[in-house]
Design brief:
The protein is mainly α. It is 53% helix and 5% strand.
Length: 105
């Protein structure tokens, strides 16, 4: 169960962006659309090329996209990152974004 609620450890303001699968669903739909045209793939390189080109296209499309309320969470994300790389425990949050336990100093 803990792995299913990992996103709850992140700041409340950006959870909806972490939780959503819209971008992933769009990626899969785009790959299906491109591969539908080609009925037979002569080799694996062609499949990899299609995946690569779709990825590049989506990166270009989404690179300017801004996460709503990200500026409210940036300091907290930096603290979480520092704690993770220093081997300290992260903050634990409830569903309302309230801190249940602080990171170990």
């Amino acid at each position: 169960m803990d792995i299913l609620t990992t996103y709850l450890r992140y700041p409340y303001e950006i959870r909806c962006m972490i939780y959503t699968t819209n971008i992933l669903e769009r990626f899969i739909k785009e790959v299906k659309r491109r591969t539908k045209i080609i009925e037979v793939f002569p080799n694996d390189n062609l499949v990899e090329k299609i995946l690569y080109l779709v990825s590049v296209n989506m990166n270009e499309r989404y690179k300017e996209r801004k996460v709503k309320n990200f500026e409210l969470a940036i300091d907290e994300l930096r603290t979480i990152r520092r704690a993770r790389y220093e081997g300290k425990q992260e903050n634990n949050y409830n569903f309302k974004g309230e801190i249940l336990s602080q990171a170990i100093p």
